[in-house]
Specification:
The structure holds 2 protein chains of 2 kinds. Chain A is mainly β. Helix content of chain A is 0%, strand content 55%. In chain A, the strands form 2 sheets. In chain A, strands 2, 4, 5, 6, 9, 10 and 11 form a 7-stranded mixed beta sheet that branches. Chain A has a 4-stranded antiparallel beta sheet with strand order 1-3-8-7, with no helix packed on it. By secondary structure, chain B is an all-beta fold. In chain B, the strands form 2 sheets. In chain B, strands 2, 4, 5, 9, 10 and 11 form a 6-stranded mixed beta sheet that branches. In chain B, strands 1-3-8-7-6 form a 5-stranded antiparallel beta sheet, with no helix packed on it. In chain B, β6 and β7 (64-68) form a beta hairpin. The radius of gyration of chain B is 14 Å and the shape is globular. Chain B starts with a strand and ends with a strand. The model of chain B has no long low-confidence stretch (mean pLDDT 91). Classes of the chains: A mainly beta, B mainly beta. At the A-B interface, β5 and β9 of A face β4, β5, β9 and β10 of B.
């Protein structure tokens, strides 16, 4: 099986712009979670989608949004970019009806730099 | 509510020395515990997991962890460090929240291996 695929790998944007990141989960996985990783804050949970519905949300401003499509692929969008949004954005997938001992499967991330 | 504390954001060991990375958890229910490793510019990958049963868990790359309920700990060890072990390590706990899996990550420990 192919792993979790995130595109693009690197992105450079200017303050005020918006950006869309994409994540394709492992085939058969219906849950997709997004994380922001920065040196100062570590791994911070953004949101989780399951069957096209946002099931859980972290403590981020409304500029951060996401969606999930019927094929389980997910996108996250950040509008009105700020310098502090520079980070590695990680996507993780897990199977349907996840038992608690199922690990998350991560993509390699999208490195976003805001200038 | 569950939480994870990783003691030491940076740990340095000599090549061939013992690796010990500390993780303490807090959970109101029996925990499911994980260690993940992240190499530079990559996503997280599963090292090992504890569910129920044997308290000593063996993972990939010679790592193991011991679950100690009385100490609420799940420390990660490796008898002999290798240069390739240099990475960031995350402890995580999962539990049911609102009927689905919720994952809480520690702040991570960067392991430096000195030749």
């Amino acid at each position: 099986k192919a792993g979790v695929t995130q595109t693009p790998r690197y992105l450079i944007k200017t303050r005020g712009q918006q950006v869309t990141l994409s994540c394709s989960p492992i085939s058969g996985h219906r849950s997709v979670s997004w994380y922001q990783q920065t040196p100062g804050q570590g791994l911070q949970f953004l949101f989780e989608y399951f069957s096209e519905t946002q099931r859980n949300k972290g403590n981020f401003p409304g500029r951060f949004s996401g969606r999930q499509f019927s094929n389980s692929r997910s996108e996250m969008n950040v509008s009105t970019l700020e310098l502090g949004d520079s980070a590695l954005y990680l996507c993780a997938s897990s199977p349907d009806g996840t038992p608690l001992d199922s690990p998350l499967h991560f993509g390699n991330g999208t490195r976003l730099t805001v200038t | 509510a569950q939480s994870v504390t990783q003691l030491g954001s940076h740990v340095s060991v000599s090549e061939g020395a013992l690796v010990l990375l500390r993780c303490n958890y807090s959970s109101s229910v029996p925990p499911y515990l994980f260690w993940y490793v992240q190499y530079p510019n990559q996503g997280l990958q599963l090292l090992l997991k504890y569910t129920t049963g044997a308290t000593l868990v063996k993972g990939i790359n010679g790592f193991e962890a011991e679950f100690k309920k009385s100490e609420t700990s799940f420390h990660l060890t490796k008898p002999s460090a290798h240069m390739s072990d240099a990475a960031e390590y995350f402890c995580a706990v999962t539990a049911l929240s609102g009927g689905y899996q919720k994952v809480t990550f520690g702040t991570g420990t960067k392991l430096q291996v000195i030749p």
